[in-house]
Automatic annotation (TrEMBL):
Residue intervals passing through the bilayer: 6-28
Gene3D superfamilies: 2.60.200.20
Keywords: Membrane, Transmembrane, Transmembrane helix
Organism: Clostridium punense
InterPro entries registered for this protein in UniProt: Cell_Proc_Reg/RNA_Proc (IPR050923), FHA_dom (IPR000253), SMAD_FHA_dom_sf (IPR008984)
Name of this protein: PSer/pThr/pTyr-binding forkhead associated (FHA) protein
SUPFAM superfamilies (UniProt xref): SMAD/FHA domain
Lineage: Bacteria, Bacillati, Bacillota, Clostridia, Eubacteriales
Record-annotated FHA domain positions: 70-119
Parts forming coiled coils: none
Matches recorded under Pfam families: FHA
Amino acid sequence: MNNLKFIFNLVIIVIIYFIIIYALRIMYNDTKSVGKKKKKKSVDFGLEVVDAGDNHNLKKGGVIPVNEVLTMGRSEDNMVILEDRYVSSHHLKIYFRNTDYMLEDLNSTNGTFLNDVRVRNKVTLNKGDKIRVGTSTFKVL
């Protein structure tokens, strides 16, 4: 009986030892990463409504935040639904790639314009750029 009690006490001591070692390892890893800042995947980015055009759901001066991907068009499955007759069902896509935001026209009928130049391929967006979609105009923030 004494041998069984000794073994039981020894097992409990070993389990407590492993718990303490595990907790110390977690605390060490936490203190090691305190000074490091995590890189942000993207910077704050958005579109300001300069001219709402024929879209009653947009307000002049309003800001549309852009995180990873933003789609615009007349179809209900877009993130920004435009009520403009000059806008295609799936008109454009803005997305984050590497370190830049990209604008892509999705083969729209009337086109997407960046700084009054029609977008033919994917283009990089910069702060201050003006995007015209149908009768609406947006400014990149």
